[in-house]
Amino acid sequence: QAQVVESGGGSVQTGGSLRLSCTAPGFTAKCRGMNWYRQVAGNQREWVSYIGTDDMTRYADSVQGRFTISKDKATDTVYLQMNNLKPEDTAMYSCKPVGAHCFYTWGQGTQVTVSS
User: Fold this and answer.
1) What does the angle CA 64 – CA 69 – CA 74 come to, to the nearest 5 degrees?
2) What's the rounded Cα separation, in Å, for the pair 50 and 69?
């Protein structure tokens, strides 16, 4: 199975922005779409956003209007632009393609820390 690679996390203050990247070789050809998730240690993984290979997008209520998901088909990369960040956005962010014939292992994730 191929592995996804996330990057772009960091530490910002409240109101700041970050752009996360997720590369999954071949996913636009094999999969239905890509999900972003986040997880705080000790808590369940939380779904954040989805983009389909047809460009359909979905967002969790908690990030609607602040986060924007997009993709670059040429590089099999999905981006998560995160604006107006809040301390409650602090988490490890990870991504994973989804689809019936789509098999990828989880990457290491990328840490986002938002300080007040």
Assistant:
1) 170
2) 7
